[in-house]
Amino acid sequence: MGFNCGIVGLPNVGKSTLFNALTQTAAAEAANYPFCTIEPNTGRVSVPDSRLDELAVLAKSATIIPTQLEFVDIAGLVRGASQGEGLGNKFLGTIREVDAIAHVLRCFEDTEITHVDGDVDPVRDAATVETELMLADLDSLEKRMAALVKKSRGGDIDAKADLALMEKLFAHLSDGKPVRSTDGLTDAETLRLPYLQLLTSKPVLYVCNVAEGDAATGNDYTKLVAEKAASEGAAHVVVSAAIESEIAQLEDDDKAEFLSELGLSETGLSRLIRAGYGLLDLLTFFTVGPKEARAWTVAAGASAPQAAGVIHTDFQRGFIRAETISFADYIACQGESGAKDAGKLRVEGSDYKVVDGDVFHFRFNV
Ligand SMILES: Nc1ncnc2c1ncn2[C@@H]1O[C@H](COP(=O)(O)OP(=O)(O)OP(=O)(O)O)[C@@H](O)[C@H]1O
Ligand SMILES: [Mg+2]
């Protein structure tokens, strides 16, 4: 079970450059012309988590294995995409499959790099992309609502409920607002929403791609994006894709030195990965021993057996119990045996809900 984040934006804004830096490969072709990317590129990225390093030190773990998040580099979209312009529907289908969106906005000046709309204006660009996604959602709702009208007249209760929900969403979109900002939905409607697979219902994070010199400070463009993001309750991250791709190729020691020269305490990529992970309503749990310290991911609300199942399906099938220490207790008691002595090791059953930071031993029988 993996979670992913799609990299979305206008053509030639630096999506593939960012993807390559994230995945530390040159898997995606990045070049100075619009529509360079056609087929989506997919890559898995380690999620940085300092808690994992702290646990590994206490347990003297030989290896550290972070949890992973998948990024998908998607073709650029242009005005009219929802009507089939540019690469049109093809890339919209790819966006439909991702769990969250990292929306890349060009915030760097460079006369050598073509901007499809002539000049740099990230807030306008964000609106251009969002408008296409909203138009595509309106289109898809309209088609489905027509089919549901008949069914709901025939007395189909589910069809009736879906139609009522879609009418609310349609009205909201018609006001020029994305589905994710719809309020006044019932609990049942909120649960149903993801199944409609609407493009603008996915959580969004704005990525300001800046010139090398602005990586630490941001610039006037990123300030405007920050205001926009704040007004929507969305996150934004300032990174320079160009420089991140250089940093990604350095050895760890050189990396730290280079970052401090730039005035950065960590890479923009680390911030971006964590922000992407944060969009997804996920929990991290740990398994820790002398062999390895490892982080794992489950969706919020997962039970202990479901968490066990992320490691191995047998662990879930034969689940007996979970022995659990919270991250805070593990650190405060200087490790597992200290936590045991202090009575901080809990024995939890199959209805236990995972808490972020739990350190688990699963007991199972197959
Ligand atoms: N921060 C930056 N500063 C300067 N140039 C950059 C920066 N980020 C990317 N570029 C350059 O912009 C050009 C386009 O980059 P890239 O191919 O990654 O864009 P893209 O968004 O993937 O485009 P497409 O939608 O066509 O696939 C490349 O020449 C890249 O080197
Ligand atoms: Mg590309």
Structure summary:
This protein is α/β, with parallel strands linked by helices.
Alpha carbon gyration radius: 23 Å
Overall 3D geometry?
A: flat
Number of distinct helices: 14
Query: Which topology of the largest domain does CATH recognise?
Result: Rossmann fold
Q: Name the strands of the widest sheet in spatial order.
A: 2-4-1-5-6-7
Family: Belongs to the TRAFAC class OBG-HflX-like GTPase superfamily. OBG GTPase family. YchF/OLA1 subfamily.
Organism: Puniceispirillum marinum (strain IMCC1322)
GO cellular component, one term: cytoplasm
Protein name: Ribosome-binding ATPase YchF
Please provide a written account of the structure.
Belongs to the TRAFAC class OBG-HflX-like GTPase superfamily. OBG GTPase family. YchF/OLA1 subfamily. Keywords: ATP-binding, Magnesium, Metal-binding, Nucleotide-binding. ATPase that binds to both the 70S ribosome and the 50S ribosomal subunit in a nucleotide-independent manner. It holds the Pfam family YchF-GTPase_C. This protein has 2 domains: 276 residues, P-loop containing nucleotide triphosphate hydrolases (Rossmann fold); 64 residues, Ubiquitin-like (UB roll) (Roll). The strands form 3 sheets. The chain has a 6-stranded mixed sheet, sandwiched between helices. Strands 3-9-8 form a 3-stranded mixed sheet, with helices on both faces. The protein is flat and about 65 Å long. Helix 1 packs parallel to helix 8 and helix 4 packs antiparallel against helix 5. The longest helix is centred in the middle third of the chain and has 32 residues. 42% of the residues lie in helices and 19% in strands. It has 366 residues and is an alpha/beta fold. It contains 14 helices and 12 strands. It binds adenosine-5'-triphosphate (ATP) and magnesium ion. Magnesium ion binds next to helix 1.
